């Protein structure tokens, strides 16, 4: 009788080859790979039984992450027929070429062989540059949305969810997007239990889903006046613990009155009212996209009094936060439903 454990004698493992771009995002890579690792074995023993992964490269030299950490490839570029997926982990966009010509040719060869390609973080940019996203939509982080439009003006792109599967091309935003993509991949091939196990061990509240909204982008992206943009960024960086308008103005080298005039001129709203709307916008996003209590959300959005928060929320949206949570999501990131600028 065989002494091989039942887990090891199951069907052929899921095989994933990873390509790391120069200055790749370490967090996106590690979150993705650790989901595979945890789904591959029982407990936390990390044996590549149900999933096998390889870090591939055209050359044996280490690849440097954007944070400076160096990763050594575990193998050369494997024959595409030996893989179920090829994943490209992107990173910094403006630090020189992300992959070499040999790797680009390999990706085209893998696509021609029918191997699905995964673009993780800015890996979607690499797939587009190699001509492998024609007629297909890409999913990117809102942070890189404008970069994508400038680089690929004729390429359809979204930034309102964590990942997108468009046929044999799957692209995702970094961070939570990499986790959502890995969860989807595991559930598709190994079942929901394996996917949930990986998420639970990594202390995710729940397995992230591709349709989950990305956290809302800062409104400073749509304001052209540089001082107002900086003011908005300062407000958005201090939502939970609001600072005074005078303090924000001082950091910009302005008086409170000057900041007031600038905001009214460029966004038709005074800074104090704008700040309150930004906090309410954030609370709205939390209500529609998390399971946190209304009290926690009020505190997170800088409202010390939950009753006061609920009244302001009802004034803004016509219903209290507890009722809003029970309604179907309005689509997009949720933030699009919030009126901030007049």
Explain how this protein is built.
This protein has 342 residues and is α/β, with parallel strands linked by helices. It folds into 2 domains: 6-201, Rossmann fold; 219-337, Arc Repressor Mutant, subunit A, CATH 1.10.10. The chain contains 13 helices and 10 strands. It has a 6-stranded mixed β-sheet, with helices on both faces. β7, α4 and β8 (157-158) form a beta-alpha-beta unit. The longest helix has 19 residues, at 271-289.
Total beta strands = 10
CATH level-3 fold name of the largest domain? Rossmann fold
User: Main beta sheet, described?
Assistant: 6 strands, mixed
CATH superfamily of the largest domain: Class I glutamine amidotransferase (GATase) domain
Q: How much of the sequence is in beta strands?
A: 5-15%
SSE blueprint:
Blueprint: E1 14-20, H1 26-40, E2 51-56, E3 63-64, E4 70-71, E5 85-89, H2 101-112, E6 117-120, H3 123-129, E7 138-139, H4 145-151, E8 157-158, E9 163-166, E10 169-172, H5 176-190, H6 192-201, H7 226-236, H8 245-251, H9 256-267, H10 271-289, H11 294-300, H12 306-317, H13 321-326
Parallel strand pairs: 1-2, 1-5, 5-6, 6-10, 7-8
Antiparallel strand pairs: 3-4, 9-10
List keywords for this structure.
disordered N terminus; Arc Repressor Mutant, subunit A; 2 domains; alpha/beta; 342 residues; single chain; 13 helices; 6-stranded mixed β-sheet; two-stranded antiparallel ribbon; globular
Task: Kindly summarize this structure in a few lines.
41% of the residues lie in helices and 11% in strands.
